[in-house]
Amino acid sequence: MSGVRHLFKIGEDSMHVGMGLNIQNVDNARTDLAVYTEELQLASLAEPLGFESIWAVEHHFTDYVLIPDPTFLLSYLAGKTSKVELGSMVIVLPWHDPVRVVEHVAMVDNLSDGRMVLGIGRGLGRVEFEGFGVPMSESRERFVEAGEMVVRALEDGFIEGKGKYYPRERRDIRPAPTRTFRDRTYAAAVSPESAVIMADLGVGLLYVPQKPWDHVAKDLTTYAARYREVHSDLPIAPIVSSYVFCDRNEDRATSLAREYVGTYYNSLIRHYEMADTLFTNLKGYEFYEKMSDTIRNGEEAATDFFLDLQVFGTPEQCYEKALKIHSLMNNDRFVGVFSFGKMPYDEALRNIHLFAREVMPELQTFDGTSELWRSTI
């Protein structure tokens, strides 16, 4: 099959499709309450429209994203839904006590009857690290130490720590997780070094597009080889998230995708200070300095590059782009973000409905026999 297909545990060829929540208030254009009211209305459509999961990110202190604790939001959604999985994309471990992370995750898992999917990461925003009093230079070490504690605790039912940052006496986790998290724990990885770290942890990979898909596919090969070496098993297939804009008119889809994705990307650059020299000689963030250098050399070109990684266009084009990503990544889960970058509520509503009606069913019933799929075999 495709180049990386044999590297992962593969179930059905059909794809799980989820909805990501990226609750922004760019430039503080409205009240946060107004933003939340509309975003929760959009989230309420996920299960009725046939999405199979809802995902919440974590960010603090700025207009970039207004979700300081994804488990709080997922707890709310657990009470509003009955079938969809509830995922964190991601919980940033260096900002938290790992004991509380495990307790919060186990709580959501019990409230939702086992529908929690855990995503973890190490963070990138200086404003957030400084807000929590955590040096960014320690983020990788903190993530590894906390990650090992969290992953182990969700399997063993108790948590303890003997490391440098999180020494903890053994304590039981109550309520206990409903079942194993081994096949439902993922971690965000952008740099090649992170892929190796996640393989050592024994977790799946979660990708938000930031670099060429063929470069990511190379990282997957390194990750899978390391995973097999450490765990004597194949890893679970990765998750891919994308900003989605779907419209029947190709010109309109392209024009508005450029507007909304561009607005979002500009907010990302500001939040992470990507156009500055923050990452120069910053321990653990060497890869991001290369990204910052690209942005400093031409922000408009960088925005166009970021846009081209996303799924946008007519329903047919959205399907083909999602399938192309699949042919490179062999992801068995696709998570679309449908509201971002000052997109009006009515536009986001139309976007979600059109994708759910005409693109999602094709992805969910995809059986590996399309012309695009066959071309990669």
Search tags:
TIM Barrel; eight-stranded parallel barrel; two-stranded antiparallel ribbon; alpha/beta
Radius of gyration: 20 Å
Could you tell me the CATH topology label.
Answer: TIM Barrel
Q: How many domains would you count in the coordinates?
A: 1
Global geometry:
globular
Question: With helices defined by DSSP (H or I, 4 residues minimum), what is the helix count?
Answer: 14
Looking at CATH, the homologous superfamily is Luciferase-like domain
Unreliable sequence segments = 369-377
> What string gives the helices and strands in order?
EHHEHEEHEHHEEEHEHEHHHEHEHH
CATH architecture: Alpha-Beta Barrel
Provide the residue-averaged pLDDT. 93
**Regarding CATH, which class?**
Alpha Beta
The secondary structure category is alpha/beta
Number of strands: 12
Question: How far from one another are the termini?
Answer: 4 Å
* Helix proportion range: 40-55%
Across the major sheet, the strand order is 1-2-3-5-8-9-10-12
Largest sheet: 8 strands, parallel, barrel
Beta-strand residue fraction: 5-15%
Please characterize this protein's 3D structure.
This protein has one domain: Luciferase-like domain (TIM Barrel). Strands 1-2-3-5-8-9-10-12 form an eight-stranded parallel barrel, surrounded by seven helices. The protein is globular. It has 14 helices and twelve strands. It has helices at 32-43, 46-49, 70-80, 98-111, 126-132, 139-156, 192-201, 213-231, 250-272, 286-296, 299-308, 315-329, 345-364, 371-374; strands spanning 16-21, 53-56, 85-88, 91-92, 116-121, 158-161, 168-172, 185-188, 204-207, 239-246, 311-313, 333-337. 47% of the residues lie in helices and 15% in strands. It has 377 residues and is of the alpha/beta class. Helix 3 (70-80) runs parallel beside helix 4 and helix 7 (192-201) runs parallel beside helix 8. The longest helix has 23 residues, at 250-272. 46% of the residues are buried.
